[in-house]
Amino acid sequence: MLLILPGQMSESRGEPKERTDVVDTEGVTSRHPRKNQIKSRRHSTRNRKSKALTDTTDSDVSPPLQVCGKLQGPVESDNLSAEEEIKIVGESFIEDDSNAYPLRTRSRRSRRMVNRSGSEVTIPRKRVRRQPRRPLNFSTSITSEGVLSSRQFYRYMDHIWSEVSAEKRNSIACMDCLWFNTYAESKWKEKVLKWIEREDIFSKKYVLVPIVLWSHWNLLIFCHFGESLQSESSTPCMLLLDSLHMTDPKRLEPLIRKFVMDIYKNEKRPETKELIRKIPLLVPSIPQQIDDKKCGYFVLYYIYLFIKNAPEMFSIDEGYPYFMTEDWFTLEELDGFCRTLESVRVDTTSSDE
């Protein structure tokens, strides 16, 4: 004797498909795909994977939920009553950690919320102001603790340069304090090289290159770059003055040598790459700072004293390091120099007002 029992829905490629089986009273199941018969609730071992869909009807299975244009699988709602049914409007997404379900709307100023009771609430969005983007990440900013900014450096450097004699101005050039930093940004490299070309640095005895990288100031000096690299009397060289040797000044050497190589190449100099790579980079032992704030003032004082005491012909074999020693100046002399700069800043500010 055969019994016809409720059937089962099976999925094939995402669509329900009827399967017909015939079950006898002894529990043995046999398949008849061409007959309209229903499968028994007592499943065999191999068909237990589809048990979740056996006891559900079409009304219990919610339609596929569409999130950001993608179809998700069927959502089971056996644990929810009719009053707790979630209202889905258009494209939506569910937050499991709250009782509200935000819905996408065209307005950016507010959003609609549908709670579990079915009522809709409009909540205004908070406006967030974006911070302005800095053009460079290397430059320091002016602070109340006394850290030197690039704007202050320009002002103080103008005061120092105004006291330099015309004769020394013809033999010494000073680059902008942000040119080296801007060169580090690869997209501005060509512009910086054009600016340097206008300065005609190969006709100068000394070229001062202030560097501020990683919120720390250094001073790079090109000596006799216009002379032949094979000269014995005045050999071209580079000086790197750093007030914080514990940070290893030589870490800047790869970038400095790339900078120098591009300058020679842009000027179409006859020197070969092998000779340019042999230009020595010297790091003399000079007075060091005792805090983490006055590196910029040390660089200004280095510039002031170097312009004042620079020799006519800089020689590595005969006179180096000249005056650039550990007792070059005292911290009290540096403090007096800083007070002079502060008075210049106050006078300039009062005149502007």
TrEMBL record:
GO molecular function: peptidase activity
Start-end of Basic residues biased regions: 31-51
Family: Belongs to the peptidase C48 family.
Superkingdom, taxonomy of origin: Eukaryota
Entry-linked Gene3D superfamilies: 1.10.418.20, Ubiquitin-related
Name this polypeptide is given: Probable ubiquitin-like-specific protease 2A isoform X10
Domain Ubiquitin-like protease family profile: 121-306
Keyword field: Hydrolase, Protease, Thiol protease
GO BP, sorted A to Z: proteolysis
Presence of the UniProt keyword Hydrolase in the record: yes
Biased composition (Basic and acidic residues): 12-22
Annotated spans, Disordered: 1-64
